[in-house]
Amino acid sequence: MPDKDFTVLILGDIIGRSGIRAVISGLSSLVKQHGADFVLANGENSAGGFGITQEIAGQLFAAGVHVITTGNHIWQQSEVFPYLDQEDRILRPANYPGGNPGHGHCVVEARGVRVGVINLQGRRRLYPIDCPFRKAKETIRKISSSADIIIIDVHAEATEEKEALAFFLDGQVNALFGTHTHIQTADDRILPGGTGYLTDLGACGPADSVIGFDPQISVERVRSQMPLRNEVSDNVAVLHGAVLTVSRADWKTVVFHRFQERSLV
Questions:
Q1: Domain range for residue 198?
Q2: Cβ distance 97 to 111 under 8 Å?
Q3: Is residue 1 included in any domain, yes or no?
Q4: Is residue 108 part of a domain?
Q5: Distance between CA atoms of residues 111 and 16, nearest Å
């Protein structure tokens, strides 16, 4: 096995056409820049801000994404339900009730490394689904013998919930990070037990926006308190995410840091 460390490029929530364009056009450059061997992306908001379609997933896979995670909007594009059952590399949160379409985890091999990915969803200010703490432990036990490294995407609102889950699992996974808020936090670090942590990756989507959406509509929504439908802004994007590097010698996390890259499209 090569001695080179294994590096994972992780992309935050991809939002609408702007985010898709930015990922498709800029991913190869980012992979080269960071020496990435594996790419993980959250596709939660890629279909007009709400969910993902099979067509969009195919575009992201073709661009070089290995695994796509999602979150609370996964059920808003019903056409994707059969695809969730068929394609192991696109995940929905594992702690939704049993019997729902899709898979909550997968193990994908890249460059001789077996990468385990677990998708979870928080419950604070979201939905009262199954406990992410219990589901995380259960899933780690299930895949630990078949994965060299394990990464967890926690799609959640509350910082406290994400940080608590990270310390609960510290040393059992290589990285745990949050998605969902679309705003990148500045707390990237490696916890005492060796788990890389970031409260929120941020988003891959329009830069001049309110969490990815049209500023004028967002202002009016908040000002008037009327239930106006958000529309994704379509200006030049910014790519937010993190880089994880793991030693092949002992599968320990050696580097974990956030990044931000302005798109050219």
A1: 6-262
A2: no
A3: no
A4: yes
A5: 31
Q: Is 73 a catalytic residue?
A: yes
Map residue 116 onto helix, strand or coil: strand
Token readout for 223 is 């000002």
pLDDT in tens, the chain (265 residues): 456 899 999 999 999 999 999 999 999 999 999 999 999 999 999 999 999 999 999 999 999 999 999 999 999 999 999 999 999 999 999 999 989 999 999 999 999 999 999 999 999 888 899 999 999 999 999 999 999 999 999 999 999 999 999 999 999 999 999 999 999 999 999 999 999 999 999 999 988 888 888 888 889 999 999 988 888 888 889 999 999 999 999 999 999 999 999 876 6
Closest residue by Cα to residue 198 from 42, 20, 5: 42
* CATH number of the domain to which 248 belongs: 3.60.21.10
Distance (Å, rounded) from C-alpha 202 to C-alpha 185? 7
pTM for this structure? 0.94
Residue 252 lies in a domain: yes
Please pick, among 34, 66, 73, 182, the residue that the annotation labels catalytic.
73
Domain count, the chain: 1
Please indicate, yes or no, if residue 214 is contained in any of the structural domains: yes
Beta bridge partners of 8: 38, 244
